[in-house]
Amino acid sequence: MEYRRTLYIALLFFLSILLFLLFGPLEVPFFILLTFTMIGWGLESFGVFWEEHGENALILSGGMVINFITAIAYGPAAAFIVAFLSDFFALRGLKKFYPLPKALFNASQISICSMLAGYVHRTLVNAGSYPILSISLSAVVYTGLNVTLMGLLVYLIGKEEYEEFIRMLPTMLLAALIPMVFMGVIGAVLYLQFGMLAVGGIIAGIIFINFTSLLLVKYKKAQIEMLLAMVKALEERDPYTKGHSERVANYAKLLARKLNMSHKKENLLYIAGLLHDIGKIGIPDEVLNKPGNLTNEEFKMIMEHPIKGEEIISQFTHLGPILPYVRHHHESWDGSGYPDGLKGEEIPLEARILAIVDVYDALTTNRAYRKAYSREEALEMMKRMKGKKFDPRLLEIFFELMETGDEFKFMAG
Fold first, then answer.
1. Which of 202, 256, 354, 413 could be joined to 266 by an S-S link, Cβ 3.0–4.6 Å?
2. Is 76 helix (H, G, I), strand (E, B) or coil?
3. In a structure prediction context, what are the per-residue pLDDT tens digits for the chain, which is 413 residues long?
4. DSSP 58-71
5. What are phi and psi of 367, to 5 degrees?
6. 201: helix, coil or strand?
7. From CA 84, how far away is CA 107, in angstroms rounded?
8. CA 149, CA 5: separation in Å to the nearest integer?
9. Distance between the two ends of the chain, CA-based, in angstroms?
């Protein structure tokens, strides 16, 4: 699969060079070319990180607006110079997310999209089309081709990554591509009317969109931080569970990696691990820290915490995907769990993962009513719950991780 991806990137690179040669010569003053390249580089370098997934990120930037305007105003060849150079050098500055092959792919596919958008515009104008119509159709070509070329690369990477790409596509279109392409259409119309006088207003519009998006991203992060503060306050009430949620989150993330889950799902599972016990915030201390057996009424209060946790987290719409993970992390494979008595694969995979790592951490740490079990004792006890409390397949994979000792390396690093 790796060689096919490399071959695909190489083909796009050579295709972009070939199209540039076919669409030449350049029909733009050097000063304009340099100015647009520098503006594009600056806008690409200071984009907004909308979502991060490990080594991947969805970045909102305004470089595509400048690329599109160049294509409409000065033709395909000029669009290649501006798009390829500004994109490649800006993205190479973000080496964490854009190593050389990825930066080369982005620069190549963006320049191809820009050149073909410029070609469509010129063809339609020469055929007598209204400028606004030709610009709009060129924008559709730009957007469709951009999504197609990205989708093909992701498809070559792997099935799960492609499914994740399809799932994220609406967000990518609504949050990044469509706003910027719309800004590109407006910018192109203004530039054709007012020339360089319009550039300042175009840049101001891009900065406004980026700033608004940045505020939204910060708001979402602030919401998660507030929930984590509630979890910390909960754990401070019980010295025996201090750090429990973070350990559960880390164990869950490790198991997700072993299962080759996507970065997006891995991160959602990590957040769910951090917040899985937040519903205990309303349980009295005398119940949480009781050293003896719980009464029926007290245990009923404990059993309600997944539902309470779901209710708390549901107030934060962007955390919607983790609601079933939190609600069902105490379900059992045989249907004897709570709150809904789900069994087998009725239980979400992520909730089954949390069930395993939650019990493991509970067994291997001190509690008010008992001392911690050793790692070996805990694993032996969990083995007896295979097919009853836990998903048999997942438990075997978890045991494999424990045998390698990777959990200690992971927790340390």
1. 256
2. helix
3. 578 888 999 999 999 999 999 997 887 889 999 999 999 888 887 765 555 544 455 566 778 889 999 999 999 999 999 999 998 887 666 555 567 888 899 899 999 999 999 999 999 999 988 889 999 999 999 999 988 998 898 888 877 778 777 867 776 777 667 877 888 899 999 999 998 888 888 888 888 877 777 777 777 778 778 888 878 777 777 666 678 888 999 999 889 988 888 777 888 899 999 999 988 888 887 887 777 788 888 888 889 999 999 999 998 877 889 999 999 999 999 999 999 999 999 999 999 999 999 999 989 987 766 788 888 899 999 999 999 999 999 999 999 888 875 554 444 33
4. EEE-SHHHHHHHHH
5. -130, 165
6. helix
7. 5
8. 12
9. 30
Residue type, 91: L
Distances (CA, A) of 115 to 23, 67, 81, 333: 8, 9, 10, 55
**Contact 322/290 with Cβ under 8 angstroms?**
no
Query: Which residue shows structure tokens 């899985």?
Result: 276
Residues in CB range of 86: below 8 A, 6 or more apart: 36, 37, 38, 39, 40, 41, 43, 44, 63, 66, 67
Q: For the whole model, what pTM was predicted?
A: 0.63
What Cα–Cα distance (Å) separates residue 373 from each residue in 239, 344, 376, 406? 17, 28, 8, 19
Tokens of 55: 């080594």
Question: Mutual orientation of helices 2-23 and 100-126 as an angle, nearest 10°?
Answer: 40
From the CB of residue 114, how many other CB atoms can be counted at a distance below 10 Å?
33
CA 175, CA 58: separation in Å to the nearest integer? 9
Q: How many residues appear in the chain?
A: 413
Amino acid at 176: A
